Amino acid sequence: MKQARRRWYDTLSRTLADLGFQKTHADPGVFSTHSGGTLLILTVHVDDCIIIGNSSTAIANFKEQIHQCYAMTDIGPIHWLLGIKVTHNRDARTLSLSQESYTNTILTCFNMANANPVKCPMAPGAIFSTDQCPTDAQEIAHMRKIPYHECYNLSYGLIHFSSLHMTSLTYSHMTPFL
Fold first, then answer.
1. Which string of DSSP letters, residue by residue, matches 14-40?
2. Residues β-bridged to residue 30
3. Tens-digit pLDDT profile for residues 101-144
């Protein structure tokens, strides 16, 4: 199965290179092409692709070219991607990303859906050590009932989510992708 994914990625990469796209240094799933004043950026995740650019004509041309190579379905403007809600306001020229649904899933998993928000989610000066780990069978049994293990990926996602929002996204953040 892993080989099939790798072959698909290699095949798609060659096709995109033939169409003038280059892999970005920052992420092998992001491709870009810049010709004259036209910029197109394509993101690929398994079999989902998102194309953005500063020319609707160039985007339409790319869609025609890629459709000649592969049977693809254009489902229109993006609304959701990998659990992220995408809202585009053309009049205001804004693109908003929201992980509210994902955040609510994590909070529900940890029984914190009704918790009050705080600036720092732990007591200032708190010190943690292995001395606080369960020491007997009863404490271990109690800890096994707490859904931390099942939520490991979600908790990692929460850490990742919070680190993404520690700074504001600006055009300079996109520079490594270009």
1. HHHHHTT-EE-SS-TTEEEEEETTEEE
2. 43
3. 878 887 887 788 888 877 776 777 888 888 888 889 998 888 87
